[in-house]
Design brief:
heterodimer, A: alpha/beta, Rossmann fold, 3 domains, eight-stranded mixed beta sheet, four-stranded antiparallel beta sheet, 12 helices, disordered N terminus, B: 307 residues, mainly alpha, MetI-like fold, flat
Chain lengths: 348, 307
């Protein structure tokens, strides 16, 4: 799946090159108390116009892998291995300066809490305009004009009047729109949205997600949506990758995965969400705790919490859940899962 | 904002009245006879004592004395000392010395303290950070009196870089006393800046700044320092107010005729009018610079509004 030479002499990506290729990405944090394995061999691709949802609970490595792609993890303490290719160019081997120039016009990111993610001492117009001043060398006046345009584009009412206001003067939803305006300022090819709606009211969540979808339709950018919210995934994503303990445990189209999970963890996630149709039924939480990333269980990292696990003599040869690591493998057309017994899980 | 400042300025008046009365009462309560103290060991005739006592209202009750003082104040008269020299002249003579000392001290405090704090905060646990931590600990644990003598001995006598006393050498003579006077605050500014910078570097908006593809220098200067300096600038502002109150030890050791030394001498010789005049002025500086700090706070941090 990896192409040895994907860039032509002029630096223009060869046709057919995915926008983003993440190849066997590992991220570790070396700490005094030990090594925390946050991301353990994640691979995926993203095409223009595609929306990939990365689903997982806190500590599953979804945010860390995104920050590794952005190049905003401090190394050290973080150690990053593997390949991250943006339009065929490996971000991990290029100079820090080249990588910086991709942040903004190439890949940009929005974060969960817009209030703490915006600088409190600068006006929102200044912060949006900074993108044009730094990356495009625009004048202050020009930058401000662009900022108003962008605020209009993300549907902030009375943009011209509010451009000089400060982040604390906006509501939560409007602040997240400011973040989005800043992130899309330079028409990035990829937008990574890290829990963009988690801190917002439900009604505002829907508006923000609609806005993201509309912007994606206009620009054709690839969208990586990091979330633990199954509802959001269902509404906007094309494909979903489910992460657990720093690995992708299941991948497929949203329709397939949501209809019939191929991994017991995904299955557990689906069953722990209230369903409107299934009135009166009990929710089935996943038992146990997410693993400590400094001491991930051997074999399948999910096996201590898994209801389908087979241990010892009950397991098929080479498929013992506590000792044999299940590879991410094709389990049905267009479906991948990292479980020794996916076929059984699929049937349920 | 304008109304807020006006209100705060008006509030200074009752505070100064109260402060001056308290100081007046404390001087009044001092034991001993200032006229006898003035004479020292020389004999003094009872007639002279009586005339002087009468002229300075020393036999009147506290209220009357204070009222006489206030009446003078309204016509711009701060009174005279027992030798007949106007207090205003004394202030005019000593205040410039203290202002110069304060300026030099603040300059050291701000420049060295900020640079050390920023460098330490950016590279936490690095060599510079540890150097700053150790040196500031040493500085704050040495009494200023000892520090002053060490500075005189080392930089003045052994190395001969700076004059060790007096004001004959102009601004140059203020370098050593300014450094000594600044040392404590300098250490505090360095520590405060270090903590503030290190904290802000971990802030979400700094992560955003990096995600925006800003150069590292811009991430640090525009998105970290600006926010980190808010507590530091306010501390330095308030410190100007305290330093203008004069530094008795520093001014004495370095033989600088500033208001700190003047007020100390005046307390010993029970020069009531001088003490009240100068201490009230110190109180004014302190309040005024605290007001400046509050205003500055709103300028630096848009989240703070007084209207």
């Amino acid at each position: 799946m990896t192409l040895p030479q994907t860039t032509t002499a002029a630096g223009v990506p060869a046709p057919g090159t995915p926008l983003l290729e993440v190849d066997d990405l590992h991220v570790e944090f070396r700490q005094r108390s030990g090594v925390v394995h946050a991301v353990n061999g994640v691979s995926y691709e993203l095409a223009a116009g595609q929306t990939l949802a990365i689903l997982g609970e806190s500590g599953s490595g979804k945010s860390v892998s995104a920050q590794a792609i952005m190049g905003i993890l401090d190394t050290p303490p973080a150690v990053i291995r593997g390949g991250i290719r943006f339009e065929g160019r490996d971000l991990l081997t290029m100079s820090a300066e080249d990588q910086r120039k991709i942040r903004g016009p190439g890949i940009s990111m929005i974060f969960q809490d817009a209030l703490s993610s915006l600088n409190p001492v600068y006006s929102v117009g200044w912060q949006i305009g900074e993108m044009f001043r730094v990356h495009r060398g625009a004048s202050r006046k020009e930058a401000k004009r662009k900022a108003v345009e962008l605020m209009d584009r993300v549907r902030i009412p009375a943009a011209a009047r509010r451009v000089d206001d400060y982040p604390h003067q906006f509501s939560g939803g409007m602040r997240q729109r400011v973040m989005i305006a800043m992130a899309i300022a330079l028409d990035p090819r990829i937008l990574i949205a890290d829990e963009p709606t988690t801190a917002l009211d439900v009604t505002v969540q829907a508006q923000v997600m609609d806005l993201l979808k509309d912007l994606q339709r206009e620009t054709g950018m690839g969208l990586i949506l990091i979330t633990h919210d199954l509802g959001v995934v269902n509404e906007v994503a094309d494909d979903v990758a489910v992460m657990y303990a720093g690995r992708i445990v299941e991948r497929g189209t949203v329709d397939d995965v949501f209809t019939d999970a191929a991994h017991p963890y995904t299955d557990g996630l689906m069953k722990s969400v209230p369903q409107v149709e299934a009135k009166g039924g009990r929710l089935q939480p996943i038992t146990g705790q997410p693993p400590n990333l400094a001491a991930i269980p051997g074999g399948c990292p999910f096996h201590p919490r898994c209801s389908h696990r087979r241990l010892g003599a009950a397991a098929a040869p080479g498929r013992e859940c506590a000792t044999d690591v299940p590879p991410l493998r094709l389990v049905a057309p267009g479906r991948e899962a990292a479980c020794h017994y996916s076929e059984e899980v699929l049937g349920v | 904002m304008g109304r807020y400042i006006a209100r705060r300025l008006l509030l200074i008046i009752p505070v100064l009245l109260g402060a001056s009365f308290l100081i007046f009462a404390m001087v009044y309560a001092l034991p001993g006879d200032p006229i006898r103290a003035l004479a020292g060991d020389r004999p003094i005739s009872p007639a002279v004592v009586e005339v002087l006592t009468e002229r300075f209202n020393l036999n009147d009750p506290l209220w009357v004395q204070y009222w006489e003082y206030l009446k003078g104040l309204l016509s711009g008269d701060l009174g005279t000392d027992f030798r007949g020299r106007p207090v205003l002249d004394t202030i005019e003579r000593t205040l410039p010395v203290t202002i110069r000392l304060t300026l030099v001290a603040i300059l050291f405090e701000a420049v060295i303290g900020l640079v050390a704090g920023v460098l330490a905060g950016i590279r936490r646990n690095g060599f510079l950070d540890n150097l700053v931590l150790v040196s500031t600990t040493v500085i704050v644990s040495i009494p200023i009196l000892v520090l002053a003598f060490i500075a005189q001995l080392l930089f003045g006598l052994k190395l001969g870089w700076f004059p060790i006393a007096g004001t004959r050498d102009g601004w140059y003579g203020y370098v050593l006393p300014g450094l000594v006077l600044a040392s404590g605050s300098l250490a505090y500014v360095a520590r405060l800046t270090r903590t503030s910078v290190a904290e802000n570097l971990r802030a979400d908006y700094v992560r955003t700044a990096r995600a925006k593809g800003l150069p590292r220098s811009r991430v640090i200067v525009q998105h970290t320092l600006r926010n980190s300096l808010i507590p530091v600038v306010t501390f330095i502002g308030a410190d100007i107010g305290s330093l203008l109150g004069g530094a008795i030890v520093t001014e004495t050791v370095f033989n600088l005729p500033g208001i700190g030394r003047e007020v100390f001498d005046s307390i010993r010789s029970q020069e009531g009018a001088v003490v009240v005049g100068i201490v009230t002025l110190m109180v004014f500086f302190f309040i005024f610079f605290n007001l400046v700090v509050d205003v500055l706070y709103a300028v630096l941090d848009p989240r703070i509004r007084y209207d």
